[in-house]
Amino acid sequence: MNHQLGYPSVVTALKKAIQSAEFQAITFRDYMEICLYSEPYGYYRNERPKIGKQGDFYTSSSIGSIMGEMVASFICTQQHNESPHTEPVHIVEWGGGNGRMALHIMGEIKRTEPAIYARLTYTIIESSGYHLQQQRTLLEEHIKVIQFASETEWLAQTPQDQVYVFANELLDAFPIHRIRYKDSLFQESFVKWQEEEQIFQEIWRPISSRRILDFLERSKVQWLDGQIGEINLEAESWVSRVAERIRSGSCMIIDYGDTAEELFAHHRYNGTLMCYRKHQAQDDPFIHQGEQDMTSHVNFTSCELAARRSGFTHCKLQTQREFLVEQGILQRLQNHYDPNPFSEVSKRNRSIRQLLLSDQMSELFKVFIASKHSL
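User: That's the sequence. What structure does it adopt?
Assistant: Structure tokens below.
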């Protein structure tokens, strides 16, 4: 028995998919989807904590309430600049995790802009039963404002004005196609099962998908021989689907990633795919199936292309730090020194500094905003 293998039911689902596939191999994209999303033990489906000290990683909503306050500030500013002050306002959070970001956003709007809060509907689109339960419990006080919907239900509704969709660390976990440039040809990663060694193994095959070939033709990037990169076609599709539901408003993506030029640069020879388990990062996706997070950097160039094709007229990409400063985070630093490191003021100042300092989060994380204005 290979002790590196993950949840038995996820391993079984993978083997089954491989056995019924042509060439006895599935694309890396399908492998990643089963590892992360198969029921009931895929990584995002099982009930193990993912976020915070007990989990595998932190998100910006784990660091105090500041990020949520700044998103709220952005939405309220848009409201004042753009819109009639009587119409309903729709905030839609995609993949709400444990519900903390929603709590911070609604709390801030209620506190600072009660008139906007009074006409607010906050929809959470969540496909994990485990997270839904956490959200319902945590967001009790805002129950009159909240709706829970599936992706299909929400997308099926007619387009509305004043819709603000945001996704915090969502697109980096979409299943990706893993691509290699070798001997002047592009190849795609497939995964097969080696019965003797009891391991999953990567093999490379010619690219058959038209969409991937189109993507590679569109991107003007020179690859080195042997270079590996990721293509996230689902991020593009997601942006296009969301665009159809927004008559006026914005779509905000907060995630780590960069422009295509940076993501396929030569110093990224092995791509950006990473796995996280118990706060340890490593780059082997072929172990711990269902027990580790798998992510890759978001290609914001392709998100912007999809946004513009889908009718968004304004697009802006900033580092998280630039976004926070623009939304007035520096005014929130409380100037007086508090000798007690555990006081609320000290904790708040610490979390602001943590989001702003040029460590991983503030520069690696980007905020991409695509907007449409009502006619």
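The chain is about 35% helix and 25% strand.
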